[in-house]
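Practice problem: predict the structure.
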Amino acid sequence: KKKYALAWPVDAPGSVTVVTIAPDFHGVHSGCITNLKKYTTYYTSVLCFTTPGDGPRSAPQLLRTLEDSE
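Answer:
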C-alpha cells in the first residue's frame, strides 16, 4: 500500500498539496510536505491508496508552519 499526505490552508480548503509516501517495509511511513507558506495554519491528513481504490482520510490535524530557515 502507498499513502498520500495532504495539507491545505485553513482559509483556502481548495488549495490541497498532495505528497505520495512510498511504502516502508519496516512498518513506518514518513514523508515531507514542502513548499508550504510560512506562518500559515494548515489542516493535514493521510490516506492509503490501493488498486481497488483510496481508503478513508484520517481525521484532519491542525498545524501552523514556522518561519523558513533562510
